[in-house]
């Protein structure tokens, strides 16, 4: 049976291309044609596409019913905007999502300078736009001289890619009741160890949000606190965890230091601009004769949309260009060229340096310029394979 359904509106398309095999299927291949698309990314205003908008969240919802699985029509699913059947099998490609752990400086200066709320608003807007394609984590850190250092808020983890988890955790944080130190190196070390232990399937990153001036909860040698942070970023990178730096409200000295941290977090050489090595600091980061080309990011907190756009663009660059076919299904290697992959409505050529390829019967990858275009905040992917090219286990 040839199965085909009309495409939904472009704003329903997402990078989370969903495929899931129904239980009890013993077919060697699936006859017909299916189109596969996943949950919608949030729109530019931060809202998610849903049934309250111009189009229904799930194709076939207009009559409020669930389509017959044998008809080839879409079937409602809480995790998807649209899904398509091939016979009695629901197919799902899923992006190899990166983990981005948001580590927010909760020192008192973040509140006294009016930085906390506008930065939080921009971060949460970016999370809402990208929650379907990125696993987010969150914690805020501070510390107290003679007390707990670092003090991390409860760890929030959106392994299910639900941005509301991050929003609720972020909204629960207020200014510390005490001075509130900035033990950034210690907090980054704690979070990096958590990410390393988690062994996530995709790449892992820390998105560090700070007003720039670290300490070790002792108000002692500033150079050593900065050296410790560079060392912590280098250690995290050595274990496979990158660090991206967002700085707000700092002076030129802070900017030079945050550039050092950005280079360390990207695995690039760091120039000892602070003279930390001469102070024989205990952490002792590794320095070179010149610095790398990494940069930190400084949003304009006066402009909420610009802040959201900058953070969304930064996080989107971490998206994976690899999609995994779920449920033990596979694509017949002899039929791969018959597949259709579209990015923002433009068809991508198979086996082209800027198109797509199958790395294995269950792994699809976008290449070259297509991969670069994918790493835009609101990019959409559409994937279509003939159902007789989809092989059951």
Key terms:
393 residues, Rossmann fold, six-stranded mixed sheet, 2 domains, alpha+beta, 18 strands, elongated, four-stranded antiparallel sheet
Secondary structure: elements and pairs:
Elements: E1 33-36, E2 85-86, E3 89-90, E4 93-95, E5 99-105, H1 108-112, H2 116-130, E6 135-142, E7 151-152, E8 156-157, H3 163-171, H4 184-198, E9 204-210, H5 222-238, E10 241-247, H6 252-265, H7 304-316, E11 322-325, E12 330-331, E13 340-343, E14 346-347, E15 356-360, E16 363-366, H8 368-374, E17 381-386, E18 390-391
Parallel strand pairs: 5-6, 5-9, 9-10
Antiparallel strand pairs: 1-17, 2-3, 4-11, 6-7, 6-8, 11-16, 12-18, 13-14, 13-17, 15-16
Helix pairs in contact: 2-3, 2-7, 4-5, 5-6
CATH topology of the largest domain: Rossmann fold
In terms of DSSP E residues, the strand content is: 15-25%
* Whole-number tally of structural domains: 2
Shape descriptor reads: elongated
The radius of gyration computed from the alpha-carbon positions, rounded to a whole number of angstroms, is 23 Å
The CATH first-level class of the largest domain comes to Alpha Beta
Examine the secondary-structure arrangement and name the CATH architecture of the largest domain: 3-Layer(aba) Sandwich
Average pLDDT score: 79
Sheet with most strands: 6 strands, mixed
Series of secondary-structure elements, N-terminal to C-terminal: EEEEEHHEEEHHEHEHHEEEEEEHEE
Structural class: alpha+beta
Subunit arrangement of the protein: single chain
Q: List low-pLDDT spans.
A: 1-82
The proportion of residues forming helix, as a percent range, comes to 10-25%
What is the assigned CATH homologous superfamily of the largest domain?
Answer: von Willebrand factor, type A domain
């Amino acid at each position: 049976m040839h199965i085909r359904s009309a495409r939904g509106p472009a704003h329903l398309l997402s990078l989370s291309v969903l495929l899931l095999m129904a239980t009890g299927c013993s077919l060697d291949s699936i006859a017909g044609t299916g189109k596969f698309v996943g949950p919608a990314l949030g729109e530019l205003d931060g809202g998610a596409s849903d049934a309250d908008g111009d189009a229904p969240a799930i194709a076939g919802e207009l009559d409020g019913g669930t389509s017959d699985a044998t008809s080839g029509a879409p079937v409602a699913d809480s995790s998807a905007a649209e899904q398509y059947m091939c016979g009695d099998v629901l197919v799902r490609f899923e992006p190899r999502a990166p983990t981005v752990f948001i580590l927010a400086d909760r020192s008192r200066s973040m509140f006294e300078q009016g930085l906390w709320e506008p930065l939080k608003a921009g971060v949460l807007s970016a999370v809402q736009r990208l929650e379907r394609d990125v696993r987010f984590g969150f914690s805020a850190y501070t510390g107290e001289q003679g007390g707990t250092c670092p003090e991390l808020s409860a760890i929030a983890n959106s392994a299910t890619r639900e941005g509301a988890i991050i929003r609720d955790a972020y909204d629960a944080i207020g200014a510390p009741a005490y001075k509130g130190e900035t033990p950034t190196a210690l907090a980054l070390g704690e979070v990096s160890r958590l990410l390393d232990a988690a062994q996530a399937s995709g790449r892992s990153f820390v998105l560090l949000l700070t007003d720039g001036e670290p300490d070790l909860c002792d108000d002692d040698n500033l150079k050593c606190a900065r050296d410790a942070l560079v060392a912590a970023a280098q250690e995290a990178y050595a274990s496979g965890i990158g660090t991206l730096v967002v700085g707000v409200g700092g002076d030129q000295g802070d900017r030079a230091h945050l550039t050092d941290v950005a280079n360390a977090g990207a695995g690039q050489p760091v120039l000892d601009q602070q003279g930390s090595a001469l102070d024989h600091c205990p952490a002792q980061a590794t320095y070179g004769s010149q610095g790398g080309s990494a940069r930190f990011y400084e949003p304009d907190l006066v402009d909420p949309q610009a802040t959201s756009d900058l953070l969304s663009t930064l996080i989107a660059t971490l998206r994976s260009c690899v999609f995994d076919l779920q449920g033990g299904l596979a694509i017949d290697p002899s039929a791969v060229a018959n597949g259709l992959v579209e990015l923002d409505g433009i068809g991508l050529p198979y086996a082209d340096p800027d198109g797509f390829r199958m790395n294995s019967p269950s792994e699809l990858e976008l290449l070259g310029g297509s991969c670069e275009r994918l790493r835009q905040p609101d990019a959409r992917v559409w994937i279509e394979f003939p159902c007789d090219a989809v092989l059951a286990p």
